[in-house]
Design brief:
The structure holds two protein chains of two kinds. Chain A is mainly β. In chain A, 2% of the residues lie in helices and 45% in strands. Chain A is built from one helix and 41 strands. In chain A, strands 1, 3, 4, 34, 37, 38, 39 and 41 form an eight-stranded antiparallel sheet that branches. Chain A has a five-stranded antiparallel sheet with strand order 2-33-40-35-36, with no helix packed on it. A four-stranded antiparallel sheet of chain A has the order 5-32-31-30, with no helix packed on it. In chain A, a hairpin with a 4-residue loop joins strand 27 and strand 28. Chain B folds into two domains: 205 residues, no CATH class; 139 residues, no CATH class. In chain B, strands 1-2-3 form a three-stranded antiparallel sheet, covered by helices on one side. The chains are: A mainly beta, B mainly alpha. Chains A and B meet through strand 17 and strand 21 of A and strand 4 of B.
Chain lengths: 507, 373
């Protein structure tokens, strides 16, 4: 007698993102083994990320280099200017990258950090004299050349700069890793006299020794990130009187460019993954939760293998925090709209994007630096090229790992994916050789009444969905299901996958 | 006017009660016959005798020539006058000698008697015969005095020390007293700053430190300044105190001596009483002695006056004009006086006659021996 097919419905598969920490067999089907070039869309589904549109048409000054940092300058008069760095130059503009490097100023590295402070844009990098730009002069100049500049010596050529509490703060010098200098009030070019000063926190580190990596201002507190510890000061509006509020040992920051503000939290990458400060007003304490708990090993491996820069960006519009390991050309996307039960963000991975810099503009646009110049995060093409969306479920046992499962059908429900070719894959018993079947999604362009009805498209509803039923073969005790699609101009969301299987005998 | 011859004879006797020098001189001058006296005082007696001898010789001659009785009377009267004169001189001399003896006795009697005062603490004050005073305090007092005077010297020496050295010393002592508390405060601040993670804060607005460190440094500097000013004041006060102590020690150093002197005061009074009695006794002695001398002088003067009056009477009687028989009497007499008959036929010269008969020689047995004093 024929057995009845057993339906295992993977509703909103991978909406919890990637989980490489737990055992595949014990995993919730809501996790994904692989979720490349994916994001969690607004309905909680796994979907293809957006692509980027290159804005730069003239990248002569950039040459073969890549944009390493981007910053939008704005002043109170509404003047804006996009600055970027690359090819050992200070660049401006988006379509045409203009060289803004001061004359007779030699730049040997592109690891600049740019901050806007009091109508000026400051450039800081370890071992190089800071630069400054303002709209009045419309030129980038060395800090010491500014009228009234004082006290900026080579000892203060810091790698980290923070504009907060009415001052500039700098730290992480070539030889001094425990001192923070602050400028005079509202004068980023005055570093001696006035109310300027410094603090040596070599005696404050909770573990005895550490090195300052990054600075942050949050909740009226000055947060000093060491490599392996964090020191929090309060009352930094009066730096000479600010007092130590908290110290956290065992957790530090890997790189200054991983620190991002989310409004309620400060995100940063530590040696054990992405971390954040949870804001607690009443307890006056700062518990730290791990936000990358589901991919900890992957993050640590990426950290250990990184040889270039770390770049990150927080986009409240997109609802994610991007963390890029430029040397490995991989980006992790953390959905910051909510955390899972274990306190982790839902995570996806964007491999081989070529992204080397990010910035979020005042209007919410996300700009990306690549070897092509400056791009905008939009559309579903990477510089007019497609990119591969990949989803693989964890190994599924359908509740009974002792019985054989014989897949009969896979019924994915896709949203979007206009004219995309979709590859459904499956494999048994942790095999990495997948069986594949493909199908092409039809025209999914929506036609609205009064706009495109009876003209170029068929009158449709809102978001178009596509559900297919695909025959499968083989058997095994555990099944892994995957879906890949080339994203080339159209979005794609995976609503659900319905797996039809026969439950076989006991092994 | 004093006769210089008399002055040489009389000399300068001490002034004693009774006859004064002038009185004696006046007395003698009143008894001196008119005529010229020999110029040399040392040979006055012989000269006078020679003169008188000459005179008597003349008288003898005269008696021998014209009337011996008259001549004898005249000679006796002159001799008596001369003896009275001589007697008065001897009386003066004797009075001066006796007065000198009384004066010497008065000096001996009124001579200062040395005495010594010994206090209950062992101090001694001795007054020597010359009036020199020797004070000796007891060994304990001497030691105390030495200590006090040494202390006075030390205090004065300290008072004369340069002020800056003492100011610095006082300042250092004050700082030494302040330093532990400052160190405690510094450590407390350090701990507080460490607890606040602010040990390494350096703010240009606060002199390269924290506000607390600046406040503490300011407070400590103010305290240091106050200490400096206080040290200056203290040094000045100490200088004044040293000087005052030096004065007190110096005064106290003389207290044993002063006490010895004070203790000697009753003895001094006693000595004065004794000396007063001594002086009074000597005065009474002198007065009594001088009274005797005056009485003797008075009797001597009276005797001399009597002798003078007798002599005067004899002279007056002898010089009265009377008739004398015998032509060769005068010649005999005169001759006898000069050529071998002698006075009054005694075969003696006039001087020998007077010595034998009248007894001009006081050691002889003549007439004048009845007036021997």
């Amino acid at each position: 007698m024929a057995q009845q097919l057993q339906s295992i419905n993977l509703v909103a598969p991978a909406f919890k993102g990637v989980n490489t920490e737990d055992s595949p067999l014990a995993q919730d089907p809501s996790f994904a083994e692989i979720a490349d070039n994916a994001v969690i869309d607004k309905r909680g589904r796994i979907a293809a990320r957006k692509g980027h549109t290159v804005l730069t048409t003239n990248k002569t000054q950039l040459g073969t280099g890549s944009i390493r940092s981007i910053k939008e300058f704005r002043d109170d008069s509404g003047n804006t200017k996009i600055f970027s760095v690359g090819n050992n130059k200070i660049l401006s503009g988006t379509t045409t990258l203009a060289n803004e490097t001061p004359g007779s100023y030699t730049i040997t590295a592109d690891n600049w950090k740019m901050v806007t402070f009091n109508e000026k844009l400051y450039f800081f990098q370890r071992g190089l004299e800071p630069l400054v730009y303002d709209n009045a002069s419309n030129a980038v100049a060395t800090l010491s050349s500014v009228s009234g500049a004082n006290g900026m010596t080579s000892a203060k050529y810091g790698n980290e700069v923070l504009a907060a509490f009415g001052r500039l703060w700098t730290a992480d010098f070539s030889t001094d890793k425990s001192t923070i200098y602050w400028s005079d009030l509202l004068q980023g070019h005055v570093w001696t006299g006035g109310s300027s000063g410094n603090i040596d926190i070599s005696t404050v580190w909770p573990d005895g020794y550490d090195e300052i990596v990054a600075l942050a201002a949050h909740n009226d507190k000055l947060i000093i990130f060491g490599k392996h510890s964090i020191v929090v000061y309060t009352g930094a509006t009066s730096p000479a009187s600010m007092t130590l509020e908290d110290t956290i040992s065992g957790v530090g920051c890997v790189d200054r460019d991983t620190v991002q503000y989310t409004g309620t939290d400060v995100l940063f990458l530590s040696h054990t993954g992405l971390k954040s400060f949870g804001r607690t007003i009443q307890e006056k304490s700062m518990p730290i939760s791990s936000l990358s708990g589901n991919i900890t090993k992957d993050i640590i491996a990426a950290l250990q293998n990184e040889t270039e820069f770390f770049r990150s960006v927080y986009s409240p519009e997109e609802g994610f925090y991007l963390l890029t390991f430029t040397g490995q050309n991989v980006t992790y996307c953390f959905d910051v709209r909510g955390t899972l039960e274990n306190g982790s963000y839902r995570t996806t991975r964007w491999p081989s994007t070529g992204f080397t810099a990010y910035t979020r503009l005042e209007n919410g646009d996300l700009q990306i630096g690549t070897t092509n110049g400056i791009s905008k995060y939009e559309g579903f093409k990477d510089n007019n090229l497609g990119y591969r969306f990949r989803y693989y479920s964890p190994s599924l046992t359908f509740g009974d790992s002792s019985r054989i499962k014989i897949l009969k059908k896979l019924k994915p429900t896709l949203v979007g994916a206009n004219n995309a070719t979709v590859f459904m894959k499956w494999a048994y018993d942790f095999d990495t050789t997948y069986a594949t079947t493909e199908f092409t999604v039809g025209n999914q362009i929506t036609g609205f009444y009064g706009e495109s009805e009876y003209t170029t498209v068929e009158f449709t509803g809102g978001q178009l969905t596509n559900q297919r039923s695909l025959n499968t073969t083989g058997y095994g005790t555990s099944v892994q299901v995957g879906l890949e699609s080339e994203i080339d101009g159209s979005p794609l969301s995976l609503q659900e996958i319905n797996v039809m299987a026969l439950i076989g005998k006991l092994l | 006017m004093i006769n210089p011859n008399m002055s040489s004879i009389i000399g300068s006797p001490p002034s004693v009660s009774g006859l004064s020098e002038q009185q004696i001189i006046d007395m003698v001058m009143s008894a001196q016959p008119s005529g010229t006296l020999p110029a040399s005082g040392t040979t006055q007696t012989n000269t006078i005798a020679d003169t008188l001898g000459g005179i008597l010789g003349g008288i003898g001659g005269f008696l021998g020539s014209t009337g011996g009785q008259q001549a004898l009377g005249t000679g006796a009267g002159a001799l008596l006058a001369q003896q009275a004169y001589q007697r008065l001189g001897d009386i003066g001399e004797r009075a001066r000698r006796e007065a000198s003896q009384i004066a010497r006795q008065g000096l001996e009697q009124t001579e200062f008697k040395p005495f010594t005062v010994t206090t209950a603490t062992g101090g001694m004050m001795g007054v020597g015969p010359e009036g020199g005073t020797t004070m000796t305090v007891s060994p304990e007092e001497a030691a105390l005095q030495q200590q006090l005077l040494g202390g006075a010297g030390q205090f004065y020496g300290q008072a004369q020390q340069p002020m800056d050295a003492r100011e610095q010393a006082v300042f250092e002592r004050m700082r030494a007293a302040m330093r532990p508390e400052e160190e405690r405060q510094r450590l407390a601040l350090e701990e507080r700053l460490a607890a606040q993670g602010r040990l390494g804060v350096s703010s240009a607005a606060y002199g390269g430190a924290t506000p607390e460190m600046l406040a503490m440094a300011t407070a400590q500097e103010e305290a240091r300044n106050r200490a400096m000013l206080t040290a200056m004041q203290q040094a000045q006060a100490e200088q004044a105190q040293q000087a005052q102590l030096g004065g007190q020690f110096l005064s106290a150093g003389y207290v044993p001596q002063a006490q010895l002197t004070a203790a000697a005061q009753p003895a001094m009074t006693t000595a004065q009483l004794a000396q007063r009695g001594q002086l009074e006794g000597a005065g009474m002695f002198g007065e009594a002695e001088m009274s005797g001398i005056e009485a003797l002088l008075s009797s001597g003067i009276t005797q001399a006056n009597l002798m003078g009056q007798i002599g005067t009477g004899l002279l007056q009687q002898a010089l009265q004009p009377t008739y004398v028989s015998g032509a060769g009497g005068g010649t005999t007499g005169g001759t006898g006086g000069g050529g071998g008959g002698g006075v009054l036929g005694t075969g003696k010269s006039m001087s020998e006659f007077l010595d034998d008969v009248i007894g001009l020689d006081p050691s002889g047995g003549g007439l004048f021996n009845i007036f021997k004093l």
